[in-house]
Amino acid sequence: MSIDIFNEISKSNAIMDKALEERFKTNEPIVSILLDAEHYSVMSGGKRVRPFLTLEFCHLFGGKTEAALPFGMAVEVIHNSSLIHDDLPCMDNDDMRRGKPSCHIAFGEANALLAGDALLLYAFELCAENKDVEPSTALEAIAVLAKATGNFGMVGGQVIDLYGDTHTLDFDTLIKLHSLKTGALIGAAVKLGCLAAGVASDSEEYANACLYAKNIGLTFQIIDDILDARAGEEAPEKTTFLKFMSESEAFEYAKDLTDKAIAAIKKYEGSDVLIAFAEYLLNRDK
Amino acid sequence: MSIDIFNEISKSNAIMDKALEERFKTNEPIVSILLDAEHYSVMSGGKRVRPFLTLEFCHLFGGKTEAALPFGMAVEVIHNSSLIHDDLPCMDNDDMRRGKPSCHIAFGEANALLAGDALLLYAFELCAENKDVEPSTALEAIAVLAKATGNFGMVGGQVIDLYGDTHTLDFDTLIKLHSLKTGALIGAAVKLGCLAAGVASDSEEYANACLYAKNIGLTFQIIDDILDARAGEEAPEKTTFLKFMSESEAFEYAKDLTDKAIAAIKKYEGSDVLIAFAEYLLNRDK
Predict the structure, then answer these.
(1) Closest by alpha carbon to A38, among A88, A113, A146, A89?
(2) Distance between CA atoms of B87 and A279, rounded to whole angstroms?
């Protein structure tokens, strides 16, 4: 039976949307400005591929949706925090996000900055209050998430990205940039799904899930570079994969990574959705 | 025996400085920019009153320094994150902090923004890796810290503060502003000290520690307003306590709060340092 990956993502998104929707409401005056800015960003129609991975890996290894849900939400709110901060004038200075004014255009720079901060913090509140896992598991998830997002994770990757605006990066640094900026949070999404299912972080299952995450994360970025180049949206100052190889070589490289991702998980019953997802990331045209 | 509170704070600071100093070093190229910005801010000679409270409450209730240290560091790095973000041009636009160029002046706005983000995240890594407390205790500490700093804590207070730049606040909102913006993190510092000592969050000791924190937090702010007014540094658009009462009435109000703070903890053996600290906050002249 062939998998309709869009339908699978859409089912996961319906669960996440419902869970997130209620989280940014308050009767508290003034503070409601902050919650409105967070709601505006979190509920603005992102693809939610990270929490999809959290739920899928939890299901793959026999866990329950309730245990994965707070972890998936945590990953998603951190992702949205990074988008709000990335869009700020001192960073990428993007006025539009997902077809709407960016958070700082809609709510002002200071409120956007604070909304991003609050979302980072809220992620840990969500993880700490996950009552469907053991305390030691929630704690491990928090350590994984904090490391994946901090100095040697997402934020470290953002610093390399900024540096790349004014410096040419070598190939290894380009790989490091993407491994940290986007790869680390994708890795955390997958790891938190495994932890929610009770998979130990020193198990073979966990290691295979990490391999999958690492390879699809890089694939995602290579295909992004190819699509940007085709659309003529390649920022001239940015080092991309196409500075090091032709488009067809880049696609072959991504295909090889996708094969590795699939090989890491195909032996697990129920991995067909994750296989279809990896193929979708490789073959997408937008 | 009379307590030399400066000596007590200085002993605590020596412990914190030593523990924090090593945390912001890396051989990783480029990411070192981020760590340098964090080190610059965290090691720039803050008074570290929050981790002092964490260590003191841990000692008061019979806990060990090692158990309180990661929690105190976590509180301190979050405090420094908030200062970095508060100084940014879109917030208070302060070029100087502790007698030195602010983080964004020294490292650029984007790196300062990211350094603040990374410090928020690092706080949770520190808490999650506290091996000197039970996993359930570390988890409780994380929940306390995330709530105290997020939407209905520090960041919520920053939003009320911003709102107060262009709106007159009533007395209750002024109290809420300070309870959230500075009070919540002071409360978390005290609570994390209690948790590190194994004090249960539903105990009388914990409730009394919270009372102490609440009352010294507000005292701190009232005295700040008095000192700013005396120095002629009162921002004209800001609502302060002196909009609602005379200087002597404000001092009496703060003295009453300090009495309540002391009453909450004086029955505990070894509370003389915390009593001296509350009196110092009330009677300080800078």
Answers:
(1) A113
(2) 46
Pick from B113, B177, B180, B201 the residue to mutate for testing the A interface (most A CBs within 10 Å). Answer: B113
Residue with tokens 């690092």: B122
Q: Is A227 at the interface with chain B, CB within 8 A?
A: no
* Beta-bridge partner residues of A100: A97
Tell me how far apart the alpha carbons of residues B70 and B124 are, in angstroms, rounded to a whole number. 10
The pLDDT of residue B2 is 82
- pLDDT-based confidence at A1, cuts 50/70/90? low
Asked whether B116 and B85 are in contact (CB, 8 A), the reply is: yes
A222 in Cβ contact with A256 (< 8 Å): no
End-to-end CA distance of chain A: 25
Give the end-to-end CA distance of chain B in Å, rounded to a whole number.
25
> H helices of chain B, where?
5-21, 31-42, 49-60, 65-87, 103-107, 109-128, 135-149, 154-164, 171-178, 184-196, 204-230, 247-265, 272-283
Which H helix or E strand runs over B100?
strand B100-101
List, for residues B49-91, the tens digit of each pLDDT value. 999 999 999 999 999 999 999 999 999 999 999 999 999 999 9
Question: Do residues A12 and A56 make contact, with C-beta atoms less than 8 angstroms apart?
Answer: yes
Is-contact A34 B151, C-beta < 8 A?
Answer: yes
Residue A128: both structure tokens together: 């700490």
Q: Is A120 within 8 Å of B121 (Cβ atoms)?
A: yes
* Four-residue CA torsion sign, A94, A100, A102, A106: positive
DSSP of B26-37: ---TTHHHHHHH
Type and span of the H or E element at A217? helix A204-230
- Contact criterion met (CB below 8 Å) for B128 and A139: yes
Residues of chain A with Cβ-Cβ distance to B124 below 8 Å are 124, 142, 145-146
Residue with tokens 């026999």, as numbered in its chain: A62
The DSSP symbol for B180 reads I
Measured distance CA(B14)–CA(B67) in Å, rounded? 17
- The SS3 call for residue A22 is helix
Amino acid at the residue B18: K
Report how far residue A71's alpha carbon sits from residue A58's, in angstroms, rounded to the nearest whole number. 10
CA distance B252 to chain A (A): 30
**pLDDT, tens digit, 9 for 90 and up, residues B259-275:** 999 999 999 999 999 99
The CA distance from B85 to B247, in Å, is 31
Would you call B111 an interface residue with chain A, using a CB distance cutoff of 8 Å?
Answer: yes
Element (H, E) at A101: strand A100-101
CB B184 within 8 A of CB B150: no
At residue B101, the 3 state secondary structure works out as: strand
Q: Taking CB atoms and an 8 Å limit, are A116 and B118 in contact across chains?
A: no
Q: What is the rounded distance in angstroms from the CA atom of residue A28 to the CA atom of residue B174?
A: 14
> What's the CA gap between B275 and B255, in Å, rounded?
13
Give the number of A-B residue pairs with CB atoms closer than 8 Å: 163
d(CA A153, nearest CA chain B) in Å: 9
Map tokens 């994965």 to a residue: A68
